[in-house]
Structures are given as structure tokens and as C-alpha cells.
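sry for the spam today, last one i promise. C-alpha cells for design, 842 residues
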């Protein structure tokens, strides 16, 4: 090409076949191909890794030690690459503190808005608390009309009598007289100071500072009187009208009516990630973990004697469960029936079992005692089975201290603003009036509006700002990160995106396309791994990898304008020569029963009833944000798991779930990565490694050398190479450059000791077996059912090309989902006869 480009020579990362290519700068390039063909290996592990590595190396050695660095890609040369940003879905955010607002930095600007513009409201009376200098009081009084007669007073609490060392009434009267004050205001009348001081010490006198008619001619006099009253009243003063109405003011940050004083706020008061603003009970998480009575008493139709309290067992367990015996003894003393269903017990009897009493600890006391034993692993595991998260009882999920929620902006607290979805929050921010058109405040508001518009433009207008990042789908996380990148307005940057259209309804594709093209038009190079036909056609260039997956991929099938695509597999689908066939016959609904959800109201669901036919492939569709994941994951999956006594969190709000008798298990197969460690591979994940190690240990060579099954594992000491700890390579830390990985000189990358590598099963060492593909291993281990049972499902889901020793953290998203599915296919077809599973795919 004649265009300026990123020039790559000899790219061999993972399955790439020594590629030479030039990716044009300042253009939108779409990388396509079947799952496992090398798209992410080129885009993320080669392009982004090199761009990020070079950028990090521009920093000082001291700064580099605090920054994440990627491995140097397997490539001969990359020239002309700009600094890179990857928006990837492999590593979703897992912390509960990360929300849509924090990811896009909206919360950083919102906290400044509330600090600068938020109006404090009294926690007692709810009225605005605003310091009132004389000028502000005059502006408020000016609306009362001219010639209104005003009495300006200030409060004075007189102290101890003369006999206790105080000035006494007479002394205070003389002191006030010397300063020109001889009257006080009480019950609409003006009296002499002496009459007011006749009362008990400690009472408050409203000393008259001035009596004046309201009008422009008296403006200066009124301002001077207000200033004097505020000075003598410690910042407080009152203005009384002839009709008996009184207005109280304070030039301090306090409520003039309640007398409650407040401290000036810090910016971090409006951050739930700071100890200054986070709720002290939940520490800013919005939820607390506590025992879940629905898990402890899962079936309330059982009696106490039948084991209604699950962790204490039933009468059959009485001899080995002390708690059950204590419960029965307590029930006899309190005359609590133990033979009727728990739900039919009176409220007092149920409360007694739960809270305890009369020498009995109760359910709550039992778990509180267990909390003191959490240094023991079995206790922690036991507690995890019977606890779940619930809304914080103090902040009710708002995350903030009560002091932060006293401030309002246009009538909304900061928690109420974060509870809005992006579209409503945008309307609120755009309608926000900046007092005095302050330029700094206007800039902060404009930043908030800009980021909210980007979220809207990428099709995320339905997300609330408080939505936890870890609950988002992979595509949603990418689009939130994309909106954040747009807000930063970077130029001359390489953006690498991995399937940003996941979870996006086709209706909103044009918005995502416009965003990607907008990034390009700013002067950036955009590389997108994508399968969506509309986005592929919108690119400037199409790079198609293939022809197959794994060892059969990693080659360039086509590179050029999308409109001129050749007869590659992707090209045939784009031109309509191939298409996914529709089934000629569909299964009838209801043949295997129904699973019915009634009254689902979680999040945005409107009390819906849903009947799902069992034994069928059922698709739940709808535009982004319509409630699909809420229904299927939050309500259906969690409710099924809750019914089986498994703690997957509290299910979304619904009335009932019917038809559970047709389900033995529920499995959620989502987009989360299987693992991060390179030690996990296809053999360890499918548990095929165990029978293979046993086969090797049973060989004559292994027996002669005294080697057991554990010696054929590179994860534990014994048979592994201790020089590289079973990794097969050494990491050499370079103080001024990137770390270098070299093949282990002791085992030559084979991971095991020489005596272990000398053991062969049918001519293959353990290292040779790890180098096999799944298809090769199925043929090699034919006749060994224990191995074939685990490996065949991998071939059935199209992963026959996968190397047995390939680390799972190098798999693509599609490969990761299929390897998860293969585990359940193996179980369903095995000896255990497992069936009746509800599979949920996101």
C-alpha cells in the first residue's frame, strides 16, 4: 500500500503463520474469521501488546515497575505503531466498587458539581441550609413590599447567676445598655430587657437591634442593622413583621430554625469510594452479607423435627448434631410444636427459634458464634452456604453517608442521580442551571453531559449510573470503555476492540458504527475484531483470517475493501452464497413440561408471567436493556439455584417459580474467562489428565523407577522440572527493557525431569501427549474410555484442533464458551445419567 501503515513482518504469535502485512493508519480495519482463526492473536496479543509495550518503555524505570506490561509478541518486526489502547472483554471488572459512573469518570465530575452547587437541607426540618449574609437577606426581604414594619433581633442566651460566678441579671442589663440595647422581642411584643432577665438563667432573649420600615431609602440602615445583629448574635438573627410572622437567618452553615450546625463539605463526601463519603455500615458497597433465612430454612413445609432448619438436620441426625438436640429441648421448654410445618408456627414461635431465648442461642446466635471461628477453612465454607448479600440497612443501597444525602442538586440527592438511567441523567444534566454562568461549573457540567451522550450514542442509554460493572455483559463493558475513550478525545492512537457488538441489538448497530468511524475521523487507527455483517461492511478494510481454527488457521484469506471480498468463507456469507439453514422440523412445546415464572418485577420487568417449554431450545430476545438478562439470570437462574439450596445470590423479585420438578440442575454459561493462569489447559479442565497420569504410572518403566501418578503433573513438586517449576520457560527480568522469556535450559521446555520424560505410553512421553491435538488424542487413546469420555465432547463442540497443553488463558471468547459447554456434554452422556439440566447461555 501507498498509505502510511503499521508494517508487521513475521508475526507468529500463537497460531499465526509468519504473517507479513501492513495495516493502514487512520483507517477502520475489521478483522474477521472463524472462532480460533487467530483474530485476537493478531489484534490483542500482537498489535496491542507491542503498542502498549513501547509506550510503557517511554517511562522511567521507576515508573515502569508500577505499570502492567504485556509479553513481547512473537514477531520479527513491527514498524510505525502508535501508542495502543485495548478495549477487551476477556477480563471483566470484578470489584463491586466499579460502576458505569466510575468507569466513565462521570462520578468524578458529579462529586465536584455537588460540592460546588449542591444545596444542603436540614436533616430535621428538611429546609435548605444556606449561609445568609446581609445582602442576601435584603434581597429576600425586598419581596415583602415597601413600608412593611420590621423588627430585627438577635438571640442571646444569658448564663449563670451572680451567685455562681456569672454576670447576673443586673450585670448583663448594664452590659447591654452600654452597647445600646434595652429592649427584647417576645410573643409579638417589645419589652424592656429587665423584664426578660427576670426569668430563669439559660433562657434565650431576642434582643432588639433595630425597628425600621422596609424601603429603598432605608437600605443602608437595614444592612448595617443586619450586620450588627449577626455579629452580636453569633451569626444568627431574626426579622419579625407586624403580622407576627418571623424569618430566621444565619450567616453560618446551620439551620436557623432548628439551630443545627453543619460542617462545610469536602469533595470526597460525595464519593462512595472514599472513607469520607462511604456509608460506614456497608463501606460504600451498598450491600452487606448476612445469614439468609431462605437458605437456612429452605422448605417451610417441613417441621422442626423433620429438619426445617437445614444446617441442624432432623431427628435422624440427633445423635451427631448437638444443635438439633438443643433446639428440641428449647421447644419442649417453650411448648413450641415440633411436628407441624414451620410456616404454620406462630410468629412468636418462629422468632424464638430464629432469635433464641431462655438459654438457647437460636439460629442467629449460632451463626454469630461461627463468625468467631472463621480462621478455620471448613467454617468459612459452611458459612458461605447460608449467607447472601442484601441491601445495607443503613443507606438502603445508596452507598453514601447520611451527611452526603443532605445535599441536593435541583431537588435530587447524589444517590438519586446515580439511580437514573443514562437518558434521564442526561436530561437532568442538560437542564441544570449554573448560577451566575460560572465558567468552571459550566465546564464540569459539560464534561458530565459529554460522557452521558457518548454512553447514549453507543446504545447504553438504558444503563443506570450505579450499575455494577461486573454485572455487565462483555459487549456492554466494551461500549462503556469506548464511551470513556471518546470522552478523553485522544488522537494518533491505536484502538483495538474485540467484538464490541456483543449484546447490542441490530437496531442500534448504526450508533456503534458512527462511534467507530468518529474515532477514526479524530485521527486514530481503529482495529476491530468482529463478526457482525453491518460492522464488517462499514470498515475501510477487511482482514479475513483462516481458513480454519487453531492449527488450521492463522493465514490471510483476504485483505482489502469489504466490497471486493473474495470467495473466502467470510466472503461467501457476506455475499449471501452461504447462510445458516433453518431446521425443517421443530420440537413441540410442552412435551417435556413447562417452567413458569410468575410476577417477575426485578429491575425493569413489569410483573410479567413467562412460560418456558422444557426440552427445547428457547431464545430470549429484545432490544438492549429490555430485561433479558434480568429475567433469565437474575430471576430464573438464581431462583432455580436457590430452590436447590445453592447460594447464587438473592433472586430478582418475582411471585413464584413453577415446574421445578422437571429440572435437576441449572448451568449458566456466560462470557467470563475460564482462568487467568497459564497452568490450566484442556486436559486439566476436562479432568482427562487424571486417567492419563494413571496410564503413564502403570507402565513398566514408571513402576521400575518408582513413579506414581503425581510425578506426571507439572503443577506439583515431584516429577516436574524444578528449575522452571513446570513452566517450560524462564522469565528474565530486564531492569530497563521488557522481561524476556527463554526456554528452560534444564528441561528444554518439556516441563518435566529426565526420568519422567523417559517413561513412554505407546511410544509417547507426557510432553508428547501434551503436544497432541484433541483429534489426535482421541485416536491415540481409543479403547481407554476414561480418557475418551472427557475428550470427545471437545471434538463435538468443534475444538478438535486444540492442543492438549495449550493454556486456557490464550483461548478466544468463543473457544472458552465451547470448552465450558463440553464439560456438561461429557457429564450428560456419562454413566451418571445426569439429565434435566437447564442451560442458560448469555
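last one done:
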Amino acid at each position: 500500500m501507498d498509505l502510511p501503515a503499521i508494517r508487521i513482518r513475521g508475526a507468529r504469535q500463537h497460531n499465526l503463520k509468519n504473517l507479513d502485512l501492513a495495516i493502514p493508519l487512520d483507517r477502520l480495519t475489521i478483522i474477521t474469521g472463524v472462532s480460533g482463526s487467530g483474530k485476537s492473536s493478531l489484534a490483542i496479543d500482537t498489535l496491542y501488546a507491542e503498542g502498549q509495550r513501547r509506550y510503557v518503555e517511554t517511562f522511567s524505570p521507576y515508573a515502569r515497575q508500577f505499570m502492567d506490561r504485556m509479553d513481547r509478541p512473537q514477531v520479527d518486526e513491527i514498524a510505525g505503531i502508535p501508542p495502543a489502547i485495548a478495549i477487551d472483554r476477556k477480563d471483566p471488572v470484578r470489584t463491586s466498587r466499579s460502576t458505569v459512573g466510575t468507569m466513565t469518570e462521570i462520578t468524578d465530575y458529579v462529586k465536584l458539581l455537588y460540592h460546588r452547587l449542591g444545596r444542603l437541607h436540614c436533616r430535621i426540618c428538611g429546609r435548605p441550609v444556606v449561609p445568609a449574609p446581609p445582602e442576601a437577606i435584603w434581597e429576600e426581604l425586598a419581596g415583602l413590599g415597601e413600608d412593611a414594619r420590621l423588627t430585627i433581633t438577635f438571640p442571646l442566651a444569658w448564663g449563670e447567676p451572680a451567685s455562681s460566678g456569672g454576670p447576673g441579671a443586673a450585670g448583663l442589663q448594664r452590659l447591654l445598655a452600654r452597647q445600646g440595647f434595652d429592649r427584647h422581642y417576645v410573643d409579638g411584643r417589645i419589652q424592656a430587657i429587665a423584664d426578660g432577665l427576670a426569668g430563669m438563667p439559660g433562657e434565650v432573649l431576642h434582643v432588639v437591634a433595630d425597628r425600621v420600615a422596609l424601603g429603598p431609602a432605608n437600605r443602608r440602615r437595614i444592612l448595617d442593622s443586619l450586620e450588627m445583629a449577626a455579629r452580636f448574635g453569633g451569626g444568627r438573627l431574626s426579622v419579625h413583621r407586624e403580622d407576627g410572622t418571623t424569618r430566621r437567618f444565619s450567616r453560618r452553615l446551620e439551620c436557623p430554625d432548628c439551630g443545627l450546625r453543619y460542617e462545610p463539605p469536602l469533595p470526597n463526601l460525595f464519593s462512595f469510594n472514599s472513607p469520607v463519603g462511604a456509608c460506614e455500615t456497608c463501606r460504600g458497597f451498598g450491600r452487606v452479607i448476612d445469614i439468609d433465612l431462605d437458605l437456612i430454612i429452605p422448605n417451610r413445609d417441613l417441621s422442626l423435627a423433620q429438619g426445617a432448619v437445614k444446617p441442624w438436620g432432623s431427628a435422624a441426625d440427633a445423635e451427631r448434631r448437638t444443635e438439633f438436640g438443643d433446639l428440641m429441648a428449647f421447644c419442649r421448654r417453650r411448648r413450641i410444636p415440633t411436628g407441624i410445618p414451620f410456616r404454620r408456627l406462630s410468629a412468636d414461635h418462629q422468632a424464638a427459634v430464629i432469635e433464641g431465648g431462655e438459654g438457647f442461642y437460636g439460629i442467629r446466635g449460632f451463626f454469630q458464634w461461627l463468625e468467631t471461628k472463621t480462621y478455620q477453612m471448613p467454617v468459612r465454607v459452611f458459612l458461605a452456604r447460608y449467607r447472601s448479600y442484601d441491601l445495607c440497612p443503613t443507606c438502603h443501597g445508596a452507598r453514601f453517608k447520611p451527611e452526603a444525602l443532605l445535599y441536593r442538586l435541583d431537588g435530587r440527592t447524589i444517590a438519586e442521580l446515580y439511580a437514573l438511567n443514562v437518558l434521564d441523567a442526561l436530561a437532568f444534566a442538560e437542564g441544570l442551571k449554573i448560577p451566575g454562568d460560572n465558567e468552571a461549573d459550566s465546564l464540569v457540567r459539560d464534561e458530565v453531559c459529554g460522557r452521558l451522550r457518548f454512553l447514549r450514542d453507543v446504545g447504553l442509554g438504558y444503563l443506570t449510573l450505579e450499575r455494577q460493572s461486573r454485572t455487565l455483559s462483555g459487549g456492554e463493558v466494551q461500549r462503556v470503555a469506548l464511551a470513556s475513550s471518546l470522552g478523553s478525545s485522544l488522537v494518533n492512537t491505536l484502538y483495538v476492540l474485540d467484538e464490541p457488538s456483543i449484546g447490542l441489538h441490530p437496531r442500534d448497530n448504526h450508533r456503534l458504527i458512527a462511534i467507530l468511524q468518529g474515532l477514526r475521523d479524530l485521527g486514530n487507527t481503529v482495529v476491530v475484531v468482529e463478526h457482525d455483517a453491518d460492522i464488517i461492511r462499514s470498515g475501510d478494510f477487511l482482514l479475513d483470517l483462516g481458513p480454519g481454527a487453531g492449527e488450521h488457521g492463522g493465514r490471510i484469506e483476504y485483505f482489502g475493501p469489504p466490497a471486493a471480498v473474495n470467495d473466502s468463507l467470510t466472503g461467501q456469507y457476506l455475499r449471501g452464497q452461504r447462510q445458516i439453514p433453518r431446521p425443517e422440523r421443530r420440537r413441540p412445546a410442552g412435551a417435556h413440561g413447562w417452567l413458569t415464572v410468575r410476577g417477575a418485577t426485578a429491575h425493569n420487568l413489569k410483573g410479567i408471567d413467562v412460560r418456558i417449554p422444557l426440552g427445547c431450545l428457547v431464545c430470549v430476545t429484545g432490544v438492549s436493556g429490555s430485561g433479558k438478562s434480568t429475567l433469565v439470570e437474575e430471576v430464573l437462574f438464581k431462583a432455580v439455584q436457590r430452590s436447590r439450596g445453592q447460594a447464587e445470590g438473592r433472586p430478582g423479585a418475582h411471585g413464584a417459580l413453577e415446574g421445578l420438578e422437571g429440572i435437576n440442575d441449572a448451568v449458566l454459561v456466560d462470557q467470563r474467562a475460564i482462568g487467568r493462569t497459564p497452568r490450566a489447559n484442556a486436559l486439566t479442565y476436562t479432568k482427562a489428565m487424571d486417567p492419563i497420569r494413571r496410564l503413564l504410572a502403570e507402565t513398566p518403566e514408571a513402576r521400575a523407577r518408582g513413579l506414581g501418578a503425581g510425578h506426571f503433573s507439572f503443577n506439583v513438586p515431584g516429577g516436574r522440572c524444578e528449575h522452571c517449576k513446570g513452566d517450560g520457560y524462564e522469565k528474565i527480568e530486564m531492569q530497563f527493557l521488557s522481561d524476556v522469556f527463554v526456554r528452560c535450559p534444564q528441561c528444554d521446555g518439556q516441563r518435566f525431569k529426565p526420568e519422567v520424560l523417559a517413561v513412554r505410553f505407546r511410544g509417547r512421553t507426557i510432553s508428547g501427549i501434551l503436544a497432541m491435538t484433541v483429534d489426535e488424542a482421541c485416536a491415540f487413546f481409543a479403547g481407554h474410555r476414561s480418557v475418551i469420555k472427557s475428550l470427545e465432547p471437545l471434538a463435538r463442540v468443534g475444538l478438535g484442533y486444540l492442543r492438549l497443553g495449550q493454556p486456557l488463558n490464550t483461548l478466544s471468547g468463543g473457544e472458552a464458551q465451547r470448552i465450558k459447554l463440553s464439560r456438561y456434554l461429557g457429564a450428560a452422556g456419562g454413566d451418571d445419567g445426569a439429565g434435566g439440566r437447564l442451560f442458560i447461555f448469555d
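Confidence is low (pLDDT under 50) at residues 829-834. ok im logging off now
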